[in-house]
Structure formats: C-alpha cells, structure tokens
C-alpha cells in the first residue's frame, strides 16, 4: 500500500515557477559584466529562462546532455541555470579559477555540448577552444553590441533569446534525473564530478530555508558573493527564489569596495561568502570608516572562520555571523553553527566558542566520527577522527563511477576532513586529513593555530603546515602574511599563541611571507605552500639532526632552493647551488616545486637563518635562472662524444683535415663549394633577420616612424617569432650542408651560423619564458584597498587611446592563467616588492623624499602637489619608447607617513615586469 498524496516530482523548475507566480515582481539586481547595474524580476527571469530552453532545443540539446556555464553571479546566469535544468539538461558549472588544463579535462570528461559564458572569460575559452571537441556552441552573456571582442563562432545570448518564444514545457521527468554537475577541486588526482539530481537540489533547498540554516525569508535582500560556479552558490540561487527574497548579484567585482557599495545601495540584509571576502570587506570598512546600515546576517564557510572576523562583525557592525561547513559532495551545506537552546542561554563569549565551530547537522544530514578502524569516537569535543556524512543530498557515487565505490558499509561518505564532535553535537573541523600534523604520534590541528594567529592585529592571513622533523616526525611551521605596512617579529606571534594552544602545539618557527596562495575555491592552497617550502628545514629539525646524526651533516636550511635539474647522489653542499637535495619532507619528486612555482609570489621576508653562508646560499638559490648542474654531473650523465670525421662531397685530400673518414663517404662528385658558401652566407643573413626585425620595431616605434601596434605588435611579437623558426631551420640546414660540403673549409662560417642560430633561438626562448613567467598585466600598485587614481591632467596626458585606469581591474589583458582574477591578487603574488612604504618622517619630509626619487629615476613630472600629497610622472621604456605613468601618494600615518605608488602602462600588452621594476625602484629609492 502507498500513501494517497499527489504525485508532484521534486524538480527545480518548480522553484522558479513558484517565484514567478507568488513573487513575480521581486527584484534581481545584477552588476553586469559590461558595467551598468541591471534590474529584472523573477517573472522576467522565468520568461527568459524558458527562452533559454527553447534556444537549447534549437541547438539540438537533449535531456541529460551537459550544458556548461563559465560565468559570474548575474541574473543571466540564473536564467541559464533554470533554462538548462528546466528542460532536463544538466547544468555543469565551470570554475574559471581552475588552470586551463583542468578546465579542458573537466569539459571533455563531462562532454559538454554548449558553454554559456561571460565576456570576461573569452580569453580562457579562446586558449582552449581547439582542445574541447565536444563543445558545439559558445553563448556569451551579452548583446550583439558587446560581441566585438568575441570568439569566432560564438553567439550573443541576447540575440539568441530574441529569436525564440517564451513558451517552453518544463519538467515532466523523474525527480531523480540529473540537474547539475560540479567537479571537486581535485586536490588529489583528477577532479571528480558530483552529479546532483533534481530531487537532491530540491531537498537541499527546503533544508537550507530552515530558520537555523540560511534562515532567509521574503523580506530579505540576499547578496550571494559565493560564486554559482563553486558548490552552487551554497544553494542561494534556489533558496532565494524559493522564499521570494530580493537577489543582488555582484558580477565580476568582489573586492571590498564593490561589495560594500552593493550592500549599502541595495540595502542587503543577508549575504554569504568565504572568509577572505569578508576580510577584504572589513579592511575596506576600516580604511574608509565605512558602515553597514542594513546587513543583519552573514553566512561564512568554505574554510574556517577566524575569530577576528566574527568579533568584528558582531562588535563593530552589529552583524550576526553563521559559520557553516559543507562541500561540493554535500550540495553543499552540511552543518551550521546556529545555537541550540542550551548554547543560546550562555553569555556572548561562551556562545562565541560554539560559533567558531562548524556546527551541527540539519535534518537530512547525518554525521559520524570514526578512527582509522571505522570505530565510532566519543562526542567529547576533543577526540579527533574522520568525519563521515550521509543524507539524501550527499554524493553516492562520482560521475561516470570515477573513484569507484565511495561509501562505507553503512552508506557514509568519507569527507576527507578530520573533526571533533562535542556533547551539543557541534562539529569542529580540525584539518583536512592530508594537512593534519602528526607530531610524536599525536595530532595537531593546523586550522586551530591558523585561526588564532590570523587574529593577531598585524596579521592578514596565516597558514600552518607540518614540516619534517627527525625526532617528532612533523612539527608545525607558521607562515604569516602581515597587513600592509606592518612589521613584526616571530617572537610576537609565538607570544600571541602562548596560553591559547597546548605548549606542544607551538610552531617551531614563524616565517613572514608576502603571499599565502589561495586555491581555485578560495581556500589556502597548502599543497602549493608545501611544494614551495619543500626545501625549507625547521631550525629545530636541523639542530635535532645535528645532535642525533653525527655521521651526515643535516642539509643547509634553505628557503626555496630550486629543483635540481638531474637527480644524483645526495651529498652535503658547502653552499646551496642548485644541486641535488634530499627530499627532507619525504614528498614524492612529482610533488616538488617547479622552478616557476618555487619563486612565484611566496617571498620570504624574514630569513630564519642567521649564518651568513646560508643566507648567501639562499641568494644563490633564488636566482631566477639557476646555474647548470655541476659539470661533473653532466659529464657522467652524457656519454663522451664520439669523434667522427666529416662527411664530405669533395676528394679526400682537400676535404679531410682530420684524416680518413670513419664513416662511409658520399660518392657524389659534384663540388658543393659555391652553393655551400652561398647558402651559409644566406643562412647568416636569415639568422640575423629576427633580431633586425625586433630592432627595427624598437627604433621605429621609439622614433615615431610607426605606431606601437605595428612596431611591437606586428613586427616584434607576430613576425619575429615566426622568422626565428625559419632562421633556426635555415641555420641547421646550413650546418648540415657545411658538414657535407667540407667542414675544413666552411667551419668558420658554419660556426658563425651556429652561434647566430643559438643566439636567435636563445633570445626567442628568453622572450617566451619572460612572457610565461611574467603575468600579462601592465598595472602594478602598492595599494588596491584605496586605489590610486590619476588626475584629469594625467588622464589627458595619457590620451584617449590609453588603457583604462581602473580601481582593481578583474581581467588582465589576454590572460589565460590569470583571467578573472583581481589584479590586486596578481600583484601580491608576482610583485612582492610592491608594498606600501611606511616612513617615520612627517608627510612633508616624506613627500620631498618621494619627489626626489621620482626625479632621480628620470621621470617627467606631470603633477607636483605637496598639498594633497600627489606626484604624477611619466617614463619611457628604452626599447620601444612606450610610455608608462606613475602616481605617488603620500599620506599621514600613525608611524609618520605612508607612501603608495602605482605604475601603469598605456598599451594593452604585458609589460614583462617593467611596472613592477619601476615600483620597486621607486620604493627602494624613497626608503634610502
Ligand atoms: P569544496 O568541495 O571545494 O567546497 O571543499 C570542501 C572542503 O572545504 C571541506 O571538506 C572542508 O575541508 C573545507 N571547508 C568547508 N567549509 C569549511 C569550514 N567552515 N571550516 C573549515 N573547513 C571548511
């Protein structure tokens, strides 16, 4: 017998149907990628989503086909979601922050047929278009007018929508049909797909609507900063229409100032984001004395929320914080730290201890804590164990069965997180299983130490990793990124931790870094930190090794020693040239850093080594182009060349300087002298051509004979590399001809061709490498929280052709690897020296010093205004004579004064590090 209720499949199209019928005039406001704010309603979104379904049907998309989106949070993205899912296709959200190779893998694995995207991400798609054969159509969320920079063959969304009707049938399929697909970040192995069903999304929506979960209602205005491409924006794009809340979609601008502007202008009451976003907002609020007049509650998850953030929201801005935990595999919300009746009865400080935990499961989620043997562990609040989870919106199997059987015998999924459970059922994540530190058989929670350290007033971000230790296996190392302009000692941080964590949890060392890398989903990328720190040795480990192993001296403590080129016998080096090292931490060679990774961004500011040779060793070790391995190593690796007499065309007597040939002689009689000589002369000329072209481009642009597009763009960047290839081929052919035609006679010219080829090719490789290693930007600033802008006068100087001077642009030109990222973040990673300068002088004096530095650098002054502390100047590059502009701002600061510098080019090509060099040079000169 079955119940006698109506059959009403739980499919997500019903959510937007409901929003249209009962909250049709409720607004969705979006910051469009093109710039202006766009306003629409649930009724309009519903109608346009139907058009999306018709467009897809017209493109022959069938139920079950995968249709991807690579897009920011906007109303158009919501329309596409509902249009795709409503007709039974699967909405596959792509995370633009993944590397291109990962995107290619994911798109091919999912066999996506269509991709909806934003203008911002066209460079990414252009770079991978020929590697994603299943994709038949790319639809750009824009209108025809903005399609100028489009990818060949891409359609404009608005134009497609205008060609179809808004009559489309939705639903009518099983509620267990697939609705969405999202790949995990893939920290181990390839990314795996989580295939959500309509039913699981529907149930997740009902659960998140609960008062103790997201708890939003029809009177709320909701701003999901958390992207729709990461774990479904925590379900907000379903729950907001489900309750009829107003939605505010932030588009591409996620910096503190832009979010603050939206919070205030749209009177947002509820928002959700990862801690780093909130940190940026709080920094912005402090810097600008900003206030939050409507915001009532924020949900924070994705990584553990630092206490300082909860306190700042609560005490300074009167905003309640709900800490939540979840993962792609749990749709994503798994727990939330809203109080139960016992906790609610506690005082604020006691409640805070629970608020900082990840919280308790709502109906629909069941948790287990087990040891490695699968036995349940006590809910005592301090026993660590594996966190397992089960429920109707928890993954049962990855897409296409990847990873095999993933549930235990009771149907629980192992989250890969290590956690505790307390007597109130509050779960606390202590680590990812692979990050937890095992010290002397006991576990140390890196997250807990990080959270406390991040609460230090001078800290912006903190990360803890386990470093190899001969006695304890692993010991904690604390990495700290200081707030701009701050300086600190490691003792300050150790003292700050004292009493807040167990003594034996105390980090063995503190290292100050300019950047703590975040992964594609905004979490601290410990894998990258570990590879970058692979050659670092804790001072305590070196000491322990020295006292326990008398035979082999411990390796030199080093930071960022480059990867050795060829593995060889481990040996102790007097100084750290890039010679083979022991893998101290025991990571597999594959996990060791590439040279590029080793040096990108994570610059150690305070060396932990005090002996001069070791510091010298580091300096050598971080040279951008490490020396070749020792020649002995090479010699043993490469067999000694055999001596061959040359093949010749001529007679033995005049063509055999080294005696009888050891290889069969060619019997051809034709003398090749004339031709060989002529050819070698020609090859010499051809080998010189690329250099001549670049030179001509440089001089031509510099002296105004051609514009930069011709001199730099066409001649130097487009033609010269192609000619380089021809030159190298011609050169190699010349060598072969010389060998055959009589090496004795032609060796000098052949050698010349060889050297020129080598130099040309070397130059080409250098230029390519410089393009790869330098981020494709031409804008470097020491401050993006209060961006430095140019005066009208300077803007006139720059002229209408010059690139925009934006406040923290999101999209570096022609960027594949960096597309969609904030220039602020890229600056922090790639130009560590671009940091504000704090001087103990009065502002007037600091201004004079700054102006002297600008003049000394040979820049032409445009603005010299001591009253506002603004200096503007222009410089010209030596080679092409390209102009770049500099603005310097001197402001009073508690310590005396603070100087910020921004350097920005005028043409939209990568500056190959020139602006970073300019800022570094100026800051250096102002300091001295
Ligand atoms: P993802 O699937 O990319 O969303 O990552 C899920 C993982 O993020 C979880 O397994 C946790 O390790 C981590 N995570 C999510 N929320 C939190 C939180 N509130 N505190 C600590 N870690 C979290």
UniProtKB/TrEMBL annotation:
<keyword id="KW-0472">Membrane</keyword>
<feature type="domain" description="AMP-binding enzyme C-terminal">
    <location>
        <begin position="448"/>
        <end position="523"/>
    </location>
</feature>
<dbReference type="InterPro" id="IPR000873">
    <property type="entry name" value="AMP-dep_synth/lig_dom"/>
</dbReference>
<feature type="region of interest" description="Disordered">
    <location>
        <begin position="557"/>
        <end position="598"/>
    </location>
</feature>
<dbReference type="GO" id="GO:0016874">
    <property type="term" value="F:ligase activity"/>
</dbReference>
<feature type="compositionally biased region" description="Basic and acidic residues">
    <location>
        <begin position="570"/>
        <end position="585"/>
    </location>
</feature>
<dbReference type="InterPro" id="IPR042099">
    <property type="entry name" value="ANL_N_sf"/>
</dbReference>
<comment type="similarity">
    <text>Belongs to the ATP-dependent AMP-binding enzyme family.</text>
</comment>
<dbReference type="Pfam" id="PF00501">
    <property type="entry name" value="AMP-binding"/>
</dbReference>
<feature type="domain" description="AMP-dependent synthetase/ligase">
    <location>
        <begin position="24"/>
        <end position="399"/>
    </location>
</feature>
<dbReference type="Pfam" id="PF07386">
    <property type="entry name" value="DUF1499"/>
</dbReference>
<protein>
    <submittedName>
        <fullName>Long-chain-fatty-acid--CoA ligase</fullName>
    </submittedName>
</protein>
<keyword id="KW-0276">Fatty acid metabolism</keyword>
<dbReference type="InterPro" id="IPR025110">
    <property type="entry name" value="AMP-bd_C"/>
</dbReference>
<keyword id="KW-1133">Transmembrane helix</keyword>
<keyword id="KW-0812">Transmembrane</keyword>
<feature type="transmembrane region" description="Helical">
    <location>
        <begin position="719"/>
        <end position="743"/>
    </location>
</feature>
<dbReference type="InterPro" id="IPR010865">
    <property type="entry name" value="DUF1499"/>
</dbReference>
<dbReference type="InterPro" id="IPR045851">
    <property type="entry name" value="AMP-bd_C_sf"/>
</dbReference>
<keyword id="KW-0443">Lipid metabolism</keyword>
<feature type="transmembrane region" description="Helical">
    <location>
        <begin position="675"/>
        <end position="699"/>
    </location>
</feature>
<keyword id="KW-0436">Ligase</keyword>
<dbReference type="InterPro" id="IPR020845">
    <property type="entry name" value="AMP-binding_CS"/>
</dbReference>
<dbReference type="Pfam" id="PF13193">
    <property type="entry name" value="AMP-binding_C"/>
</dbReference>
<feature type="transmembrane region" description="Helical">
    <location>
        <begin position="750"/>
        <end position="767"/>
    </location>
</feature>
């Amino acid at each position: 017998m079955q119940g006698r209720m109506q059959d009403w499949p739980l499919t997500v199209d019903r959510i937007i149907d409901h929003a249209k019928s009962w909250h049709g005039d409720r607004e969705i406001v979006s910051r469009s990628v093109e710039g202006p704010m766009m306003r629409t309603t649930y009724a309009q979104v519903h109608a346009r989503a139907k058009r999306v379904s018709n467009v897809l049907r017209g493109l022959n998309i069938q139920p079950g086909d995968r249709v991807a989106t690579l897009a920011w949070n906007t109303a158009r993205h919501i329309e596409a979601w509902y249009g795709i899912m409503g007709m039974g296709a699967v909405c596959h959200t792509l995370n633009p922050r993944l590397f291109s190779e990962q995107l290619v893998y994911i798109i091919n694995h999912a066999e996506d047929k269509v991709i909806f995207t934003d203008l911002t991400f066209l460079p990414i798609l252009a770079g991978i278009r020929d590697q994603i054969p299943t994709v038949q159509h790319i639809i750009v969320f824009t209108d025809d007018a903005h399609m100028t920079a489009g990818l060949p063959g891409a359609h404009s969304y608005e134009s497609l929508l205008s060609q179809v009707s808004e009559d489309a049938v939705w639903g009518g399929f099983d509620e267990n049909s697939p609705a969405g697909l999202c790949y995990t970040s893939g920290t181990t192995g390839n990314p795996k797909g989580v295939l959500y069903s309509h039913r699981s999304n529907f149930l997740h929506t009902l659960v998140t609507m609960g008062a103790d979960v997201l708890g939003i209602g029809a009177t709320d205005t909701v701003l999901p900063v958390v992207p729709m491409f990461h774990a479904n924006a925590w379900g907000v794009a379903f729950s907001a229409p489900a309750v009829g809340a107003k939605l505010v979609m932030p588009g591409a601008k996620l910096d503190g100032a832009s979010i603050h502007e939206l919070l205030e202008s749209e009177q947002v009451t509820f928002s959700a984001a990862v801690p780093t976003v909130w940190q940026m907002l709080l920094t912005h609020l402090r810097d600008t004395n900003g206030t939050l007049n409507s915001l009532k509650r924020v949900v924070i998850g994705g990584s553990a929320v630092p206490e300082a953030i909860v306190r700042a929201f609560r005490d300074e801005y009167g905003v309640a914080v709900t800490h939540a935990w979840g993962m792609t595999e749990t749709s994503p919300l798994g727990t939330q730290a809203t109080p139960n009746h016992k906790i609610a009865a506690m005082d604020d400080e006691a409640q805070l201890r629970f608020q900082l935990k990840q919280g308790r499961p709502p109906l629909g989620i069941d948790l287990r804590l087990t040891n490695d043997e699968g036995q349940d562990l006590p809910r005592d609040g301090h026993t660590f164990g594996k966190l397992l989870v089960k429920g109707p919106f928890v993954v049962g199997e990855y897409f296409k069965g990847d990873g095999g059987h993933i549930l235990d015998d009771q149907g629980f999924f192992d989250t890969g997180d290590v956690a505790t459970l307390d007597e109130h059922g509050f779960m606390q994540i202590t680590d990812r299983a692979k990050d937890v530190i095992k010290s002397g058989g006991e576990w140390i929670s890196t997250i807990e130490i990080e959270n406390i350290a991040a609460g230090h007033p001078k800290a912006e971000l903190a990360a803890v990793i386990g470093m190899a230790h001969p006695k304890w296996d692993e010991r904690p190392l604390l990495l700290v990124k200081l707030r701009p302009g701050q300086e600190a000692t490691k003792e300050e941080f150790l003292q700050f931790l004292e009493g807040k964590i167990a003594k034996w949890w105390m980090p063995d060392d503190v290292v100050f870094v300019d950047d703590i890398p975040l992964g594609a989903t905004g979490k601290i990328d410990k894998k990258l930190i570990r590879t970058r720190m692979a050659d670092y040795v804790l001072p305590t480990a070196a000491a322990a090794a020295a006292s326990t192993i008398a035979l082999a001296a411990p390796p030199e403590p080093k930071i960022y020693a480059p990867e050795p080129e060829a593995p060889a016998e481990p040996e102790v080096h007097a100084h750290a040239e890039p010679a083979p090292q022991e893998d101290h931490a025991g990571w597999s060679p594959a996990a060791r850093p590439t040279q590029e990774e080793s040096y990108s961004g994570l610059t150690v500011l305070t060396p932990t080594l005090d002996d001069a040779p070791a510091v010298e060793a580091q300096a050598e070790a971080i040279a951008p182009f490490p020396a070749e391995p020792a020649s002995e190593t090479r010699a043993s690796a490469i067999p000694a060349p055999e001596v061959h007499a040359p093949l010749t065309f001529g007679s033995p007597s005049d063509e055999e300087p080294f005696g009888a040939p050891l290889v069969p002689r060619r019997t051809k009689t034709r003398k090749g002298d004339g031709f060989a000589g002529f050819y070698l002369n020609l090859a010499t000329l051809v080998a010189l051509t690329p250099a001549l072209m670049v030179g001509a481009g440089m001089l031509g642009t510099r002296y105004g004979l051609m514009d930069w597009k011709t001199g730099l763009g066409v001649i130097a960047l487009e033609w010269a590399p192609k000619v380089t290839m021809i030159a190298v081929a011609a050169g190699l052919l010349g060598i072969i001809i010389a060998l055959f035609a009589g090496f004795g006679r032609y060796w000098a010219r052949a050698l010349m061709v060889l050297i020129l080829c080598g130099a040309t090719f070397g130059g080409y490789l250098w230029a390519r490498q410089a393009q790869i290693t330098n981020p494709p930007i031409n804008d470097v600033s020491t401050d993006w929280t209060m961006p430095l802008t140019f005066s009208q006068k300077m803007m006139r100087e720059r002229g209408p052709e010059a690139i925009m001077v934006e406040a923290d642009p999101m999209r570096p030109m022609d960027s594949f690897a960096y597309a969609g990222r904030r220039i602020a973040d890229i600056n922090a990673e790639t130009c560590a020296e671009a940091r504000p300068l704090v001087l103990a002088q009065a502002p007037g004096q600091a201004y004079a010093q700054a102006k002297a530095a600008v003049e000394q650098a040979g820049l032409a002054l445009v603005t010299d205004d001591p009253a506002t502390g603004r200096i503007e100047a222009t410089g010209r590059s030596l080679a092409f004579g390209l102009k770049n502009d500099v603005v310097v701002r001197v402001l009073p600061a508690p310590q005396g004064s603070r100087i910020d510098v921004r350097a920005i080019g005028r043409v939209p090509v990568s500056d190959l590090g020139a602006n970073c060099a300019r800022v570094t040079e100026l800051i250096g000169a102002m300091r001295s």
